[in-house]
Amino acid sequence: MRGNRILTITVLILLCLSYGWAQNDKDSMGAESFSETLAEFRDLVYAQEQGIEVVQPLFNEVVQEIEAASLSEVDKYLWLGQAQFFYGRFFRMNNILDRAGVELDKAMELIDKSLAIKVTSEGCRIKTDIYGQFVAYKDRNYILKVGLKMRKLAEDAVKLDPSNGKAWLVHSYSFAFPPKIVGGDPHKALEYLDKAMQMSNIELDDLHNIYKTRGICYQRLGDKEQALFWLYKAKEIYPENWYILETIEEAKKMK
Fold this sequence. Notes:
The protein is mostly helical. It has a domain at 33-118. It is 78% helix and 0% strand. The chain has twelve helices and no strands. It has helices spanning 2-27, 35-47, 52-68, 73-93, 97-117, 121-135, 140-160, 165-176, 186-197, 204-220, 224-237, 242-252.
């Protein structure tokens, strides 16, 4: 009887210890603890198939998971800023511009907090992306005001980590979208997009943006066949994305 009792107590102790170890492992996890939820949220934003009633709860879930993860202060602000950026982008893509401005301002504040502690490639890259969302709907004066700042941030992102494919991607924007008179250069943009494709941290949304930007570069170069080829590749990833659908229609009108 005593032997059985000792065995039972021993098993209970081991179970409690195992549970404690499991909880500690879970609590000490870093970005891997929320990466799947963040990717799901990101794709939901880009796909443009769901409304705020679906997007809002998932955004809240991502934020909670990031807050609970074991991260440095630099990384916590960075990841929260990335999630907030996607949230702001959702409103911008749905043309709810007042709300987009509010949410993107919050994203900028979080990234600035991260950069104030330590200047990182990803911090510079995300800040460039946030400016890019503002540029998409702000007036010409705003674009002239932040254009050189965006290019400098993208250059810093690449210099800080030349293996960051996302940084090469945002660097390409500074040459793909502006007119030639203010430094636009589709050939240089294509060169940077090639570099982005070679890097290991490129994700699904990055591929969409690489293909889309390649298509726009060929549009500007007057190559209709290549423009449509790359734009349709972007569409394969997010078929209902209105921006890519509109850009394809514009490219079809090329002679």
